[in-house]
Amino acid sequence: MELNNPIERLIVFLKNAKKISINTSSIKAWDELLDTEGDIPLRMERIAKFHRLIEEVCLELSNLENYEDVTQPIIKNLKRLHEVNNLNSTWGSIVNVIKDTTITGLEIFVKFVGDRYTSDYDLEKLFSIKKELSAILEQTLESQEIEPELKKFLIRSLRNIINSIEEYHIAGILPVSDALNTSLGRLLTDEQYRELLNQNTLGKKISLVFAELANITTVLTSTAPLVGVSFKLLTNI
């Protein structure tokens, strides 16, 4: 899978959506797809990001010249999803809006934009890093060695990065880069933070995982100077 291709991400999402029974409640289906586990604010936030993904894909399709006769019906069908948001209904009232021909069409056009998103990284690597970050978060929460204010910042940063990776399938790689930028940016100005990542055992774990993730986001976004500068700091620790 091309890691940051919005059309391919939407295809995967829609196929997973189609696997859920049409008799399932919409709320339960969204929670399963978005990994929100009954968290209402998080569910609504991620549903909104899913709708932004639809708009991103529609824009990609509308920019394909000389294929309007084929892309316009796909765009029209995708935009129908904006009109079916009754969380009190069954899942069928939402998922049945999407035609199989729409998914087939997306599978054809995904290759038309693929060159801009191709990379050597895959999802398994990204989600492997998420598991490492989750373990580090637990260790950070339990740590008594980190200065309280810095610990708060680190916990918030780790949670933001983990959340952005969880939302990859609807929001793409840029939010991951943004969350990482927020954390790495402090390296440029906070000597105490740099010392933590250099001298503390847990800090060294964090620096290794951040450096690995920084490498991925730098390659995939190509326009992340802050990550690039901070990555050099990490690799020099």
Would you mind describing this structure in some detail?
- The protein is an all-alpha fold.
- The protein is 71% helix and 0% strand.
- It is built from 13 helices and no strands.
- The longest helix is centred in the N-terminal third of the chain and has 23 residues, at 40-62.
- The protein starts with 5 loop residues before the first helix and ends with a helix.
- The mean pLDDT is 86.
Blueprint of the fold:
Layout: H1 6-19, H2 26-34, H3 40-62, H4 68-79, H5 92-95, H6 100-109, H7 123-142, H8 148-166, H9 168-171, H10 174-185, H11 191-199, H12 201-221, H13 225-235
Gross geometry: elongated
Mean pLDDT: 86
H/E order of the elements? HHHHHHHHHHHHH
- Percent of residues in β-strands: under 5%
The biggest sheet, with number of strands, parallel, antiparallel or mixed sense and barrel status, is: none
Short structural summary:
This protein has 237 residues and is mostly helical. It is built from 13 helices and no strands. Helix 4 (68-79) crosses helix 6 (100-109).
Which key phrases capture this entry?
elongated, 13 helices, 237 residues, mainly alpha
